[in-house]
Every structure is written in structure tokens, then in C-alpha cells.
Amino acid sequence: MRVHHLNCGTMRPPGGRLIDGEPGLFRRATMVCHCLLLETGTGLVLVETGTGTPAVENPAGWLGSAFVRLTGAVADQELTAVHQIRELGFDPADVRDIVLTHLDLDHAGGLVDFPHARVHVYAEELRALQAPHDRRERNRYRRVQFAHGPLWKSYSDSGDSWFGFDAVRELDGLPPEILLIPLAGHTRGHAGVAVDTGNGWLLNAGDSYFFPGELEPEPNCPPGLALFEGLMQTVKTPRLDNQRRLRQLVKEHGDEVTVFSAHNSVEFERLSGRSRV
Q1: Backbone angles phi, psi at 211, to 5 degrees
Q2: CA torsion 262→173→143→234, rounded to 10°?
Q3: Closest CA to 212 of 250, 257, 184, 180
Q4: Is the pLDDT reported for residue 35 higher than 50?
Q5: Alpha carbons 14 and 88: distance in angstroms, whole number
């Protein structure tokens, strides 16, 4: 299976080293929306969609003015998934399936650009969108991004074991090399997406962690980013438990599984071979 790493949404939040851990305080940090495009025998599969083309045309209306102001979201047509898919020589209409870690606006914002694709997500995450527990959960999802009526394919969090993670699911109509991994915490239906490349596994861990240092034996995270993680979590204990399990996975199986998060630019550079944008 051929894998393409795409950045489908650059963000430049203020805070410098408080956000990305690199030198300099009075500068903007760099974050990405790390997506995967998978070439399979039955069509293209997109893992995450980024912010979408409407975020270029109307950033505040699509993402919300508070998000744009807080994150410094960059409006750039060349960063959209549809543009990058065309640049690779494919027709975006050949994206028949989309697999999401969760439904936050910077992960699901591009669904509208692929209206005929099936969208694979945990049922609990879909319930959070359709029947939120409280106002805070309701406000985290941008309803406008789902107004086109996505073709949902939802799953329970039951399944087989994978490197010590329980309730792992294969996905309907997709190759068995693509798995949904339960990683609740950031949202209550948050997932990881594992891909067997034929040369080892990739695990897109979404927003289950934000900084590579969180997976080190002695975890560390820039204070501003750690604060953001805590503010955005839906269920604290599962989030911390899953971070611990990810650390264990890296320690015991790091030669077999490459774990990456959704927004770290250094991880994206390393895996894609491209400099940050």
C-alpha cells in the first residue's frame, strides 16, 4: 500500500516555545494537520481531511473566528486535500472512503470536498456530534461542516487486540491493513488509525497527544500546549491512560509501529520528507 503524507492545514499560534518547544518566545509556532492518502486496490482512502476548501474562502465562517484568531490558521488553497490529491495526479472523486480520528473542525472540515465518500468513525464520536452531553461538547463541533450530509459508517468500540490495544476494528469495505484503534480522551469517541504499509505500521494517533516528548519514558510537553490539551479534553482519565499505552507501544514495538500525532510539524517533516509550511 502506497502512503502519501499531506499537510492539510497550517496553523501559526502565538507563544513560540510554549507551544512547540523550540527556541524563541516572541514568535509564532508552527502546527500542521497531518493527513494520509492511501492508494489501495479499490480506490483512494483519505485519513483525516484537514480544514477544507471553505476554510480558504471564508475562514471565520467555516472554522469560527475564535479558532482562526487563536491558532493563526493559514488560508492557502494549496494546502487543501483536494488540491494536493490533484497535484499527485489523482482525481479527488476517486477518494471513496475517509477515515477520521474524530470530528473536530480541523480534522473533518474537508469532508464537504468529498461528498460521495463513505466516512468511517466510531459510533461514540458520531453520538457526540448528534447528541452532545453538554454545551461544551456541542460547541466543539462546527455543524456547518456536516450540513451536506456525510455518508456515515460508524462502529462500536469492540474488536480484536492489536499490540496490546483492545477493541480494534477492521473497516467495512476497506483492506484489513487499515484499522480503527480506540483512543478516547480528547473526545469521547476519539480513535487512532493504524495502517500496515507492508514495511511496518503507521499509527495516526490524532489528538491523543500533541508533542513527541509526551511519548518519551519521562514525558514532557511545552506548558502552553499542555494547558491546551487539558482544556480541550473531554474525558481526562482515558486520555492519560491512552497516552501511557502509546508510550508503552513505542517502548516495546517502536521498531514495528511508527506513531505520529495530528499537529506536530517535526513529525510531519520526518515522515513526509518535506519542510514545514
Answers
A1: -135, 135
A2: -50
A3: 250
A4: yes
A5: 32
Residue 168's DSSP bridge partners are 160
d(CA 272, CA 266): 10
Cell of 262: 495530528
Render pLDDT for 41-67 as a digit per residue (tens, 0 to 9). Answer: 889 999 999 999 999 999 999 999 999
| pLDDT tens-place string over residues 122-145 | 999 999 999 999 999 999 999 999
Contacts 24+ apart (CB under 8 A), 177-180: 177/1, 178/38, 178/40, 178/45, 178/99, 180/99, 180/120, 180/122, 180/155
Q: What's the angle, vertex CA 182, arms to CA 175 and CA 201, rounded to 5?
A: 45
Residues 6+ apart with CB under 8 A from 58: none
Burial of 260 (0-12, 13-18, 19+ CB in 10 A): buried
For 216-226, the pLDDT digits (tens) are: 999 999 999 99
> Taking residues 30-49, what's their average pLDDT?
96
Distance of alpha carbon 31 from alpha carbon 34, whole angstroms: 9
How many angstroms separate the first and last alpha carbons of the chain? Answer: 26
DSSP H or E stretch at residue 194: strand 191-196
